[in-house]
C-alpha cells in the first residue's frame, strides 16, 4: 500500500537570515533614504512593486520627493530598497487610509512615468500590487466575473502571477495592471476595495473563532496568512513564515490556566523545562480528492515544506475506491504540530478555492479514543457531547455500536471549521487525559492497599 509521506526533520530549521520579521517587530523609524515604515503590514495597506531604476527618483535628493508624497497624502511609505539585492524590482508598502494609499500610489506612478518619459525607457509603466493568495479567489470572482468587470470599467488588462510560485513560506501573488496611468490608478481603487472586503470578512471570522480558545497565541504558531494582524507579518512582498521552534517549544504554555487545561497540559511552572516534551498524537483529516495535488505540490515539495514547518509527520493514504471524493491525511505530532499542520491544510484549501465564495472550509477529522473513555466523551444522556458541540460549534459523533480495534480504541468523528474542529479535538483529548489519570490512580491505589491491610 502506497502512502504519500512527509516527515519533519530531525532538527528544527535555523532561523532564516535576511528576513524582515525581526526588523519589523519594533517601532519604526524614518530611514535616511525614504523608509518611513510602519512595523506591521496588513491587507489594509497597499503593497506595490516598482522597477529598481526608479527607486532613486521616488526617494529624491536627500529624500525630499518621498517626504513630499508622505506629507501630501498623509501616508507612511516604506521603500524596501535593501531587499533582494540586485533584483530588477523593489517592494514599496504604503500605510494609510484607502484614499491615502491610492493618492500615494498615484504620485509614485506619476514620478515613475515622468522619469520614464525623460529617459524614454517605456511608454506605460504597469502597476504591480502584492496581495495574499487568501484573497485572490474572491478578487477574481466566480468564472472571473469580478476581475473582468474591473478591466471593462477601467480599460485595463489585469493578470495574476501563477499559483506555482507559492509555497509554505510564500503566500503572496502579484497582480499586474496594464493601461494608461489614469486607468491603472482607477483599477487600483477597485482591486483594493475587493481585497479589503475579503480581508475584513476573514478578520471577523477569526475574531469570532479565536474567542473559542481564549489566549491562544496565533502569533507563535504562524499558520495563517501573513496579512492577518493577529500575526507578525513581514512587510516585504515575499514574507517568510516563522520556522518551527526548537525542541521543547510549546506555545500553549504560559498563557492562561484555561488554555493550558484546554490543551491537556499543566501550567508552565508545573513542568521542568527538560520534561516539557509532549506526547505524539494521531489525527485523521479528510480532504476533497481534488485538493490532494495542491497539498502535495510539485514533486512533493509543498507537503515536505508543511511537515518541516509544523514538525509533524504527514501521510496521504491511498484512495479506498477509484471514484472516492475524499482522501485521508494522517497527521502525527504534538498538539502544537497538529494545530500548525491542520491549520495550514485548512488554509491551503481556502487558498485553492476548493470551497467557493464566502463558504467556510469545513472538514471532518477522526481521532481515536480508548473505548473506556468513549462513555465519558458522550456523557450521561449525551450531556457532555452536546455541551462540546455547543461550545465548539463543531459536530461531534461518537458511534455507540463501534467494535474497538486491536488497541481497544474507537473512532470519534469531528466536523467543522478549523477553530471549531481544533477546539473539539483538544477538549476530547483533555477528557481522555483525565480518564487515563484516574485509571492510573486507581491502579496505584490497588497496588498500595494490600500493604496497608497487613
Summarize the structure.
By secondary structure, this protein is an alpha+beta fold.
Q: How is this structure best described in words?
A:
By secondary structure, the protein is an alpha+beta fold. The protein has 2 domains: 46-208, TATA-Binding Protein, CATH 3.30.310.210; 281-441, TATA-Binding Protein (2-Layer Sandwich). The chain contains 14 helices and 13 strands. It has helices spanning 55-59, 64-73, 98-119, 133-140, 145-154, 181-210, 218-221, 257-262, 292-296, 301-310, 335-351, 371-378, 383-392, 418-452; strands at residues 4-6, 46-51, 76-79, 89-95, 127-132, 157-160, 172-178, 281-288, 313-316, 326-333, 363-370, 395-397, 409-416. It has a 7-stranded antiparallel beta sheet with strand order 1-9-10-8-11-13-12. A 6-stranded antiparallel beta sheet has the order 3-4-2-5-7-6. Helix 11 (335-351) runs antiparallel to helix 14 and helix 13 packs antiparallel against helix 14. The radius of gyration is 26 Å and the shape is elongated. The termini are far apart. The model is unreliable at 9-43 and 219-276 (pLDDT under 50).
Amino acid at each position: 500500500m502506497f502512502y504519500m509521506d512527509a516527515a519533519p526533520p530531525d532538527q528544527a530549521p535555523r532561523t532564516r537570515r535576511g528576513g524582515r520579521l525581526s526588523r519589523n517587530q519594533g517601532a519604526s523609524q524614518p530611514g535616511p533614504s525614504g523608509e518611513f515604515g510602519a512595523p506591521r503590514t496588513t491587507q489594509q495597506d497597499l503593497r506595490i512593486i516598482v522597477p529598481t531604476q526608479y527607486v532613486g527618483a521616488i526617494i529624491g535628493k536627500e529624500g525630499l520627493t518621498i517626504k513630499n508624497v508622505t506629507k501630501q497624502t498623509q501616508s507612511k511609505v516604506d521603500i524596501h530598497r535593501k531587499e533582494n539585492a540586485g533584483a530588477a524590482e523593489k517592494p514599496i508598502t504604503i500605510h494609510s487610509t484607502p484614499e491615502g494609499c491610492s493618492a500615494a500610489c498615484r504620485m509614485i506612478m506619476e514620478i515613475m512615468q515622468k522619469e520614464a518619459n525623460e529617459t524614454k525607457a517605456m511608454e506605460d509603466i504597469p502597476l504591480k500590487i502584492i496581495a495574499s493568495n487568501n484573497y485572490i479567489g474572491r478578487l477574481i470572482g466566480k468564472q472571473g466575473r469580478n476581475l473582468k468587470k474591473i478591466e471593462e470599467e477601467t480599460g485595463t488588462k489585469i493578470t495574476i502571477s501563477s499559483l506555482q510560485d507559492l509555497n509554505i513560506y510564500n503566500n503572496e501573488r502579484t497582480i499586474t495592471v496594464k493601461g494608461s496611468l489614469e486607468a491603472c490608478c482607477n483599477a487600483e481603487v477597485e482591486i483594493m476595495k475587493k481585497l479589503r472586503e475579503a480581508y475584513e470578512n476573514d478578520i471577523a471570522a477569526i475574531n469570532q473563532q479565536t474567542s473559542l480558545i481564549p489566549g491562544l497565541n496565533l502569533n507563535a504558531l504562524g499558520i495563517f496568512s501573513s496579512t492577518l494582524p493577529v500575526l507578525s507579518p513581514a512587510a516585504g512582498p515575499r514574507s517568510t513564515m516563522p520556522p518551527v521552534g526548537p525542541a521543547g517549544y510549546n506555545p500553549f504554555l504560559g498563557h492562561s490556566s484555561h488554555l493550558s487545561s484546554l490543551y491537556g497540559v499543566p501550567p508552565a511552572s508545573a513542568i521542568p523545562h527538560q520534561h516539557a516534551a509532549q506526547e505524539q498524537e494521531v489525527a485523521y483529516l479528510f480532504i476533497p480528492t481534488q485538493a490532494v495535488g495542491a497539498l502535495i505540490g510539485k514533486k512533493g515539495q509543498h507537503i515536505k515544506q508543511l511537515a518541516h514547518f509544523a514538525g509533524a509527520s504527514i501521510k496521504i493514504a491511498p484512495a479506498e475506491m477509484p471514484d472516492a471524493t475524499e482522501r485521508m491525511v494522517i497527521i502525527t505530532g504534538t498538539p502544537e504540530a497538529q494545530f500548525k499542520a491542520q491549520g495550514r491544510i485548512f488554509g491551503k484549501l481556502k487558498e485553492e478555492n476548493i470551497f467557493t465564495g464566502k463558504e467556510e472550509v469545513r472538514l471532518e477529522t477522526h481521532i481515536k479514543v480508548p473505548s473506556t473513555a468513549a462513555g465519558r466523551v458522550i456523557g450521561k444522556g449525551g450531556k457532555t457531547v452536546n455541551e462540546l458541540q455547543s461550545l465548539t460549534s463543531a459536530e461531534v459523533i461518537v458511534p455507540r455500536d463501534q467494535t474497538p480495534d486491536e488497541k481497544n480504541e474507537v473512532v470519534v468523528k469531528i466536523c467543522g471549521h478549523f477553530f471549531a474542529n481544533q477546539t473539539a479535538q483538544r477538549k476530547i483529548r483533555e477528557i481522555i487525559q483525565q480518564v487515563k489519570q484516574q485509571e492510573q490512580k486507581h491502579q496505584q491505589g490497588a497496588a498500595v492497599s494490600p500493604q496497608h491491610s497487613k
